[in-house]
Amino acid sequence: MPGGIRWFAAAAEQRAVYVQTYRYATATLERLAQGRAAGSWAVILDADETVIDNSPYEIQQARLGVPYDSASWDAWVKRGAARALPGAVEFTSRVRALGGHVVIVTNRDAMYCDVTRGNILRVGVPADEVLCRTDRANGSKDPRFDAVRSGTAPSVLPPLDVLMWVGDNIQDFPHLSQSIRTAPDSALSVFGERYIVLPNPMYGSWEKNPVP
User: Fold this and answer.
1) pTM of the prediction?
2) Above pLDDT 90, what percent of the chain?
């Protein structure tokens, strides 16, 4: 079993860091939301390995000795069996209690949007909107982030002030890519405030980075 999958699926540290990160995000959001009108703002979260857990799929593929493939992923997604990750339900419920919208922006393809929405709601994450990828050639989330802020399609919500983004991939945050890994620390100043990142050692855009 690859170490990254074993850590994500079985390590006490995985649970601890997710609970810790979501508690910190909650405390930060409570400060950012002070004085804001209910319904005027949102938090944007990624889906996979941010609010729902696909490690059973990764374990399945590892035990079979095969990599990710579209057919096995299709079967997994359609099962709608991904569990909520530690802290995700509590955090998103607090967003709603404070008067914010919970928006999920995922790079799951549009054909999976209904089952993904159902899976997310079923595990207790109160998502107001789930925006999937419609352009398979372009995985950038920036147009969907802009749609949430401007209240334009594909969002069906009014214009919203996005107070926080939460994700496990650097591309879950506006206009960022792996290139920021070599930037000065000052370029990361928004992390821990409006950007909250979670660990994913199983897969991600980091996999193509050269090792120093």
Assistant:
1) 0.97
2) 97
